[in-house]
Structures
1.
Amino acid sequence: MRRGDGHRAGDGERAYRERLFLLARRPVRWLPAVLVVGGLVFDLATPPRYTAAPFFCAAPLVAAPLLSLRATARTALAAVLGELWGVSHRSAAPGHHESVTEAVTVFVVALLALGINRVVRPTGARPASVRDVSEAAQRAVLPPPPERIAGLAVAARYVGARADARTGGDLYAVQDTPHGVRLIVGDVRGKGLEAVAAAVVVIGAFREAAEQEASLEAVAARLERAVRREDGRRAGPEPSEGFTTAVLAEIPPDGPSVLRVLNRGHPPPLMLAPDGGLRVLAPAVPALPLGMSEVASWPARSEETFLPAGSLLLFLTDGVTGARDVRGRCFDPSGRLRGRRFPGPDSLLDTLVEEVGWHTGGAPADDMALLAVQRPMGV
């Protein structure tokens, strides 16, 4: 077995278990609401001498280990209000003196559920705090770009993975240079603070090379050397396998209708035309990610294409293309976006982030970095 195969197999098994967990957990999360509604229906459908207090006691107790503190509190409040409504409904019945006692019982159980939530749920607090540090560090190195750069409209988003996943090394950068507007979107192999540190190295090398180098090929060569140096610095007793997938793009200052793209093993960008048309800008010849020159080496070539006025360019990481629903189906951005029109980059990214969230049933399992650039009409 090659080194790293066991890691990938473990990741696949862990992802499979996570999907099964999500598939099982989604209906269970509705159980507290079902119990509250069931209690109300029971009160309406049965004679006053019967009580729905067991339903209202069970709802917050079920919510406590499954839901957040806020959701548990909402469930507890709904249960208490449901019981009070039942008390008022049964108050007309003679001899039903237990109603007040039952209401107090539901109230006490609701408070108990909040305490249980605080005892049970902090099992994830420590990993979450470590993850928060990584995510905060990553956000610090990925500040939002200016809304306009050299006449182009620009927007970016970074969306962290769900709380039980470690943050990755997603990155983006865009800047105006003497050679035109240049940008990079990439993903460093690995997770946690080490991946964030490697992403900082890539962004720093890009910003310097983008100003100095006359071609995207030369920029990519500088990044290759930077990734190899960082990989060597992080290497332990065994050789490291660090690499970075990346796509570089350039819109020259003397021809905003020209787009050059150089792809190093990264999901291809998409070009959305003003009429709803969509092109996947896949490379004619695939290339290995940055940092893998020792495995194989061949000259990476940029490819030039026409960029119509009003077109939107979408660059993304595999946190989008690899986002899975509970059945394991990947999100297809080109299929979702084809035939649709967006007024600008912000609208496009907001829509995409929202639809990935719907697809995964919440936050995605992997981080997402997205960058959109639009050549406005008349530019």
2.
Amino acid sequence: MQTIAIVGLGNIGTKYAMTRHNIGFLSLYAITQMLNNPYILHNSLNYQNTKTLLGDLESLVDKKKGIMQWQNQKSMQSFQAKISLKDFVSPLEYFPFFLTQLKCLNPHKKPLDSLELQKIFREKLGSLSNEYEILCIAPTTFMNRSGIALQSIEKKCNIAQMIVIYDDLDTRFGNLSFRYKGGSGGHNGLKSIHEYVKRDYLRVKLGIGNNIILHDMLDSLVAHNTRVSIESFRTLFYETYLEKLCMAKIFKTKSLFKVMESKIFMDKNLDSNDFNIGCQQMSSMDSNPCHVECNKTSNKNFEKDISNTTQYNKILESQPFGRVQGVEVQDNGNLESTQSTDSINSVTTTQNKDSKTSTPNTNLTQKIDSIKQEDYEAIMNLFSSYQKSGDKEVANYVLSPFNTHEKTLLAPLLAYNGLVVMATLFEWAYRNHNTQTSTDSTQTQTFMPLDPFSVLLK
């Protein structure tokens, strides 16, 4: 049996559980929830699962529930969970727009609908051998000694591949990038791994650096100097970001902020129909017998008066592709909300009686039609100036909790990251299977190029 190790870096202890430095642990928690609770998959790339997908990984240890069960392996100084490769990648079936990125499913690039892709995926998944198992690892040695735990695990397991998920201060929050080789980049966890583990591994970097659009300082820096409603601007950012996670076609030719700009200034070249594709593909899950119907509410525009951060939590009800539902965002009880300034402007949005016939972007463009070109450029300049942690002391920043605005995007980001890891391992295992059945059995397979999956908010 060959082992594929998926390592999430973090610090044990309740006080560190929901901090930025623990995003590796948070990723493993989200993956576990996606595997153990398949009924949440239908909406795992929107705001509805904030409470379900975020939590303390230690709370899952020794709980005998689900197909992915965590145990405290004291001899190897880590929390561990084992699962077969086939079970691990099975959630991909519910996300046809992820399957379209796997060349092994459609090497000749034929026009296939969602049901055809799902059928091919199931057939190829069934053809894989049972020689691979996934071992998820959360070192309990604390971040700076992560390599010690991995060294002891490597001696006892036949590790074929290793993936390490960690936080990156030089990457702004919301970004996700992949590298197979490289240095530590100043990350103490990676330094320890390089010292004790002499092998290459796939690095999954989740940004925790400053994202000015999601930072509280934007309210005081911009709101009183421009005519921009920061709440509306952020809502547009959330909508566009989720569309990018769902791989809307428009992002093949436009960056995230170019799409935002097109929406703000109502660019005639922006085809709103592109944003319906991922939603239509996700709706095909309804015919799957494994899918459990989620509670649904009727589509409607939201009408709220926002004057402080507490009220602001309730406006983030938009789903991917511009649809707005009356679903209240829920924060995990373990997450401590950060206090923001009182400079957030109040904004009231009115309900559109003709919402059923309007385009997906109508609601937001009505709210942001007061944004002027110079105001938008001022915000983008501020964004460029505060990409990292700003003037905060680094040690305090990385150990701080995510702020209110960041928490709304954390769950879909972690869900997306989990799906990318699943897709990567499925494609790698399938190519390895084909290599072993061919005459050239000595060929070593590497991971596929991951550029199509990278969320780079340029």
3.
Amino acid sequence: MALAHNEAPTSQEGTTAPAYCAQPPVTEPILRPDLSPDRLSAIILSRTKWVNGTVLRYCLLNESDGASAEQLDEVRKAFQDWKDIGIGLEFREVDRPSESEIRIGFRQGDGSWSYVGRDALGISTRERTMNFGWDLTSPHGKATARHEIGHALGFAHEHQNPFAGIEWDDEKVYVTLASPPNNWPREQTFHNILRKLSISEVEGSDWDPESIMEYPFPPGLILRPEKYHREGIPDPLLISENDRTYIKRWYPPMEDKLAELHPFQSVELDLAAGEQSDFAIVPSETRMYEIGTLGDSDVVIVLFEEVDGELRYFTGEDDSGEDTNARLKVRLFDGRRYVLRTRLYSAWGPGQAALMLW
């Protein structure tokens, strides 16, 4: 999203050259080349998304970065705006970086950026997974906070949607972004602006220029559609209606009561690609258990333990792209409550995917 306009210089054509967030490289999954297109697409589309019902803990790294109280409050409000849509994810602020999935810095001069969804899990707990490099209290700064959290929830840039039909004036884009306040080399401009996502990375066939995940662009950088060549794309300052619909598709409200999964019980997973099933596990004895899937399917399974009324990550397994089943071997304790969440990437074989506890 854009910086405050008072920090944005004027280009030679007399238009404002906004500054943009710089998304870190996205981790590409290593998948077998013989996977079917449908199976490959389902894995790529879902791989950065959290399992619904996850409690995402974020830590504001303000001690070393000197962020103001107003800056910190704006980040909290941005998380709450996403939560108020009615999604199944929960957000908790924590004091210790080691207890967080999302670590937020406020280093000036380092731009605003975020890792995408579950890619943050591969980053050391001593490092940031998100940064805000400018004032968040202006309208554009508020939008920046919501945009970067959108990345953290697993969503990509909207202007890189292959269905947008945007034809760029490539050289003008490179020259504009190489100038202040961005000062980007060509490869960074290509990664963040010109590179189109593959069709397998997006859902549906529509482009939403009002999405909070869209960048604003001044007139002249886009050749076609003609409307945006003449007018540019204005700053999307709010989470759009399409954003709200899309995020609830991935993270719908959670049911309060869960069915229990019992030992030696097999439960069919009657799920479409991207959907999820959730079960409670309440062991009657302390011992080693095995939890796993059956059938030809690609899934991610995550086990949480309830601690002081809140679910804490225990362990998980992702078998996507492999012709094996996800398996967890864990010691569970009598009297404790666990929750197992299973998101289906795809069911690629003839049989029905199922889940079992041994």
4.
Amino acid sequence: MLQDEVRPRDDAGRQVRRGRRTKLSGRRLVRLLPALLIAGGLVMGVVTPAGYTAAPFFCAAPLIAASLSSLRSTAVTSLAAVLGEIWAVTYRGALEDYQESVAESVMVFVVALLALGLNRCVQRSDAHLASVRDISEAAQRAVLPTPPERLAGLGVAARYVGARADARIGGDLYAVQDTPHGVRLIVGDVRGKGLEAVEAAVIVIGAFREAAEQETTLEAVAGRLERALQREGGRRAGLDQFEGFATAVLAEIPANGQSVLRVLNRGHPPPLLLTLDGGVRELVPAAPALPLGMGDVASWPDRSDETFFPAGALLLFFTDGVTEARDLLGRFYQPASRLRGRRFPGPDALLDMLVEDVARHTGGAPADDMALLVVQRPMSA
């Protein structure tokens, strides 16, 4: 039984390692390309008559090195390209056509200088991108701090997977905290992209952390979030300045030790309950509801759904970056069917598998951000 549980994860790990080795091999080959071009130019200088030129090979080498290598490597490649061009025209006796030979050599020399300047620009751009990444990581840690592995006896794990490497945080959000009313959590997705979505996510998380401590019911917490978004929207000039609504799912696990789970869904993908026997159940709300911040469109009383939360079960929350991930044929990722029949030793193992499986489904990075949160109820004593 244990081998059956581990084998899928081992296979996934081997596939990921093979993919990484393939990427590393491809990168090494690309980095060798300038040297191969120079070698090709030298060979062409030997085997072709004087009427042919190897200058395109010697021009391409430093330009490629400029975008892939350090300034020192680019300088070495540029020098080798210039010397290679001079050797080629000398070997073939092209010095008899003095003007053409000088023009070719000057062209390679100018391209080599341009490559050095281009490399400087690339290095500065990389440094700026690294700075942006550091800032985005700091913002992510501030807005979406990593939750503790154990919270009020529950196992907890969370991930934020950005669709772009240079923008590691967006409008997807999560928060979990221990309160006098039990462990409460939220997973949501703010409308839109960019800094406005991040700002709205901060408002939702801040309002949740305060309301989760003070309000006695999830319905009251949802009401506080609704008012917070409406209040902030009223301070702005219009929808262009503020992304005015967010899908969200709220959950509460009472502190009295009962195997009870309360869920309130406001237009968000329903969470999944994974049991020890490999079963998966979608916690679809009894009544659909509009996202938070749309109280002006319609109003109704919020009602949470109560369900049984068995010992050892895993509760998975995610944003629509998971359910809207598509493969090459345009088919959406189906988390319930992909997870059914699988067993996981803990929250981190589930998130590792899910992130890797979505990447395999899409054939690369996801098209949208993904916020993931898993809570596991401990085994009964």
